[in-house]
Write a structure and sequence with these properties.
By secondary structure, the protein is of the alpha+beta class. The protein is built from one helix and three strands, in the order βββα. A three-stranded mixed β-sheet has the order 2-1-3, with no helix packed on it. The radius of gyration is 16 Å and the shape is elongated. It starts with a strand and ends in a 7-residue tail after the last helix. The structure holds zinc ion.
């Protein structure tokens, strides 16, 4: 069965994945991923957060 992969951030379709594992129950067969565009956005947000909190936290 094909499970649709969608970007969890912008909702764009990122392709389909063949699955044999039916973990969703009564739900649409959708898995969430992140598209390259949103990944860049998240990365830059993480970097800015790291800069803001750099004095208080070491990287984990
Ligand atoms: Zn996206």
């Amino acid at each position: 069965m094909l499970m649709k992969r969608i970007c969890a951030w912008c909702g764009s379709t990122q392709g389909f994945k063949e699955v044999t594992d039916f973990r969703w129950r009564g739900k649409e067969p959708v898995t969430h991923t992140i598209c390259p565009e949103c990944q860049r956005k998240i990365d830059s947000e993480i970097q800015s957060v790291n800069l803001q909190t750099h004095n208080n936290h070491q990287s984990e």
